[in-house]
Amino acid sequence: MFVVLDGQIDMSLPALSGESKIIAHHQRFDFSGELNLLNSQGSLVEARTVGESHLLRIPRRGLQRLMRAEGDIANLIMQATIWRRIGIIKEAGGGVVLRGFAGDVETIQLQRFLLRNTYPHRIVETTEEVSIQVGDSRSDHDPTLPAVVLSDGRTLHRPTITQLADELGITELPDPHMIYDVTVVGAGPSGLAAAVYAASEGLCTIVIEGIAPGGQAGTSSKIENYLGFPTGISGQRLASRAQLQALKFGVRLAISRDVITAEQIDGIHKLTLAGGAPVCSRSVVVASGAQYRRLSVANYSQFENRGIYYAATAMESLLCRDDDVIVVGGGNSAGQAAMFLSGIAKQGI
Ligand SMILES: Cc1cc2nc3c(=O)[nH]c(=O)nc-3n(C[C@H](O)[C@H](O)[C@H](O)COP(=O)(O)OP(=O)(O)OC[C@H]3O[C@@H](n4cnc5c(N)ncnc54)[C@H](O)[C@@H]3O)c2cc1C
After folding, report:
1. pLDDT tens-digit profile of 51-73?
2. SS3 (DSSP) at 75
3. Which range (104-118, 122-136, 327-341) has the least confidence?
4. DSSP character at residue 94
5. N or C: which end of the chain has fewer CB within 10 A?
6. What domains appear along the chain, each with residue ranges and CATH number?
7. How far is CA 228 from the centre of its chain?
8. Cβ of residue 184 lying under 6 Å from some atom of ligand 1
9. How far is residue 329's CA from residue 210's CA, in Å, rounded to a whole number?
C-alpha cells in the first residue's frame, strides 16, 4: 500500500488496446490498493506519480499488523477495498479477458471460477456456434480456446482452474516452513466461520478450498435465513463478505486445491494438497460439506455443465434464458431455483 504524503498518484486500468483509463487520483493522505491489499492477487491497476511526490510504502506484513492494532483504520481500509473492487468490476475494463465459445464446458467452468472468486473479467464469445450434441469433439473447433488474456498481455490457452488461480494469485499456497494453529478444510459457510473465529482469537489459520469460497451456499440465489440479514442475501455476496472478514483477520486462503491425504506425526497433522504441497497444523477443522448426487440417466456426463447444472445463480440463468428448464428435486433448493428461473426461462417443469 502507498500512502500519499505529498503530491499525487493517478490510478489507471490497463487496457489491452493500449490506452489505459484513469479511474482515481490519490492526493495527500489518500492510499492506493484494493482487494489485493488483503491477499496475494497481482495488482489490477497501474499507478503513476504526478509530479514530484512523496509516498509511504507499507508492505503487506506491516499492513496486517496495522489492521490488527487499529480497528478504525482497518474498517476504513476494508470499506475502500470492497468499493474499489466493485468499481473495477463495474468499469468492465480491468482484470482478464476470457475468450471462448458460448455454451462450451471449459469456458463455463473458467467463467464460474472467476465469478465465484469475484475476479474482474470480460467475456468475449466467438461467433462460432458450439453444438452440444453427444459425440461432438472439441477438435471441430479452435483448439486453443478458451483462452484467458491477462492484464500484462500474456495469453493462457485452455488453462486449468489451478493454473489460472495460481497465475492470478487467487491461491495462496501454504508456507511449507510453518506449523499453522488451525487448518480448515473447505470454505463453505462453516469453514469460513471457523476460520474467522480462529483467526480473530489470534490463531494462525489457513483455509484449503477445492473450488471457490462459499461452498453450496455460494450457488444460492438468495438465502433468507442467515442470521443478521433480515432481507436476505445472495450466496455469492455472503461468501465474498465472509471471505473478506477472514482476510481481515489474516487468514490465508489456498483456493483451487483439494486436501487429498491427512496423517498425524508426533501430534502434528500433516495434510497433502492436490499437486503435492504439504500443510502442517496443530489442529484441523474438516468442513467439507456435502457432495451432490448425480442423475442416473444415459449420457449424463456428456451434458454436465453444458445443459445440466447444479446451481441456479445469475450465471446459469443467462445460459438457459428463454429455454425450457426442468428442475430436478423437491426440496427447498429446488423450490428456490424454480422461483428464480420462472422469470427467465420459457417454460419450466
Ligand atoms: C442452491 C442452494 C440453496 C440453498 N439455500 C439455503 C438457504 O436458503 N438457507 C439455508 O440455510 N441453507 C441453504 N442451502 C444449504 C446450505 O448452503 C448448506 O447447508 C451450507 O452451504 C453448508 O455449509 P458447509 O460449509 O457445511 O458446506 P458446503 O457449503 O458444502 O462447503 C464445503 C466446501 O468444502 C470444499 N471441499 C470439500 N472437500 C474438500 C477437500 N477435500 N479439500 C478442499 N476443499 C474441500 C467444497 O468445495 C466446498 O466449497 C442451500 C444449498 C443450495 C445448494
Report:
1. 999 999 999 889 988 988 898 99
2. helix
3. 122-136
4. S
5. C
6. 2-91 (2.60.120.10), 96-168 (3.40.30.10), 179-286 (3.50.50.60), 312-348 (no CATH)
7. 23
8. no
9. 25
